[in-house]
Task: structure prediction
Amino acid sequence: MKILALDASTEACSVALLTDGGIHDRQEIAPRRHAELILSMVDAVLMESNHKLKDLDALAFGRGPGAFTGVRIAAGVIQGLALGADLPVIPVSSLATLAQGAVDKSTTLFAAIDARMGEIYWAVYESAEDGVARLLSGEQVSDPDAVDIATDAPFFGVGTGWGTYRANLGKLFDKQITGIAPERYPLARDMLPLAVKQWKNGDFVSAERALPVYLRDKVV
Result:
């Protein structure tokens, strides 16, 4: 199976290519430089793996939630690549990707991205038996003081929402928190297990239906 994944939903810009020979990836923390970097990263991983787009089975992208501009860039790039190579697209949640990067930390994961404007994007996941993060609660955007995860299970917190609102979330869930990684971002490399599972389940779309998920209409 050969899948190219990309994410630009946060300050991190990343691309990863899964092939029979392993994973090739590029990533950089580069706010406001996603449009400049992302296509060169795609070219780099394809060249490194000695593959062309037409050799792949599918493309995947971080469909949000996240920064409006970054999510739009990712969607636009993936649509262009998919149309040009006639490939299906696997839209993957940026929160799920964030949780996937921490599945070795806990059986329950609270993924949170700083949504600006005093809010966070968040969702709760569990590490399934196959090692892939599975959604336990619907993705939401809310004031950090209004979060209700509807579980008493201990969890590991991951994402920039924990960096910005650690005090707020700590007041709500201090007894449940086993640890946090506020420096983590959704990365294309971590998206790949989710993309493979969605591909096997037939959860993919045509290029024109590869659309962003914002969760709210205010621009950030």
Q: What stands out?
A: The CA atoms of residues 116 and 213 lie 16 Å apart. The mean pLDDT is 96. The longest strand covers residues 12-19.
